[in-house]
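ZP: hey, is the pyridoxal-5'-phosphate complex queued? I don't see it on the tracker
AM: it wasn't, my bad. submitting now with these inputs:
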Amino acid sequence: MKDKADFRTLCVHAGELNDTQYGGAISPIYPSTSYGFIDQDINQYPRYFNTPNQIGLAKKIAALEGAEAGMIFGSGMSAVSNALFSHLEAGDHVVFQDDLYGGTRNFIKQEFPKYGIEFSFTKGLTSDNFKIEIKKNTKGIFIETPSNPTLKIIDLKAISNLAKKAKLWTMIDNTFASPVNQNPINFGIDTVIHSATKYLGGHSDITAGVILGSNKCMELVFKSAKNFGGSLSDHTVWLLERSVKTLFIRVKEQNKNAQKLAEFLDAEEWVTKVYYPGLASHPDHALAKRQMHGFGGMLSFNLAIPIDCKKFLLNLKLVKPVMSLAGVESTALSPRLTSHALLTEAERINQGITSQMIRFSSGIEAFSDVKSDLLNALKMSRK
Ligand SMILES: *Cc1c(COP(=O)(O)O)cnc(C)c1O
């Protein structure tokens, strides 16, 4: 496999293992937890993230992000925590963007103080908002764009320029965009993290995470991760490899459906606001166009007051009112009741999250069926 092959070819073939024994068409699974060590350069062991399937899949996803190397973890949060802890020690400080994934925010707030690591949340998403938070002991900047659930966009180039000047590392949680829509390494971001539970898995049946970066970055991650643990079972690694083969066509379709839905909702009187970077009216539309290949499958919208948000979700028949996102099936949730329930009311208001907000994850069903389902739920949900 040439590294410069087309993205969709990389999805199918990068990192694949050859079945030299039987000549089968797909990667075999190597679930062994013990490997020979005599005359080997490295010790192979699942917790060292170096079984054949782990290495193959890490190569595949690294190729999709244009990274030198990668490691596969047991969950997105395992990837987030390992990425951060491997780069930090007591006395260090990190600047985080304000509206982060809820789990990441909780991790920082609960765990960092125990280890004497300091942090600040920005008060906005411009590079100046980040710059003002940089202190003498700041070591890095951590961002997430598009943000959850209001789909704000952060300028990747501006953040990486700021960080390079201040000699800081940069990390991004690229879960919402997926490698199909955004490749932050091209803009100078050092480390890319994915919750593979979302688009990389794509079928709502795998929990996994990924860290990607330069060889040097991944050596640092490995040094800590082999102590912390958190590797993924090779059976699930294999299943995730299968999922990634269809990543491009799934996400392309999800992008299309999200765009159609955003445009439809934007014109409806029962929706007061639509958050989607693909809409020309989105404040960061031009920036999104510059740094993303597609606008993604996620959108949020606010229902007009006469509509009961909970009733609306429960009256959906095709769209599932479930937690999580990015599956081939369309799903919807109330951020206030689920993903952002642990935030204080003040934090929610600050991020624009109201009880009338719905976060929508577009699947690959026919748009006409999704639209009918929403209109049907609407009829039964007036207060
Ligand atoms: C889901 C998610 C995570 C955490 O991933 P898990 O696999 O649930 O641990 C991190 N970041 C974002 C943006 C997510 O959506």
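AM: back. The chain has a mean pLDDT of 95.
ZP: great, adding it to the tracker
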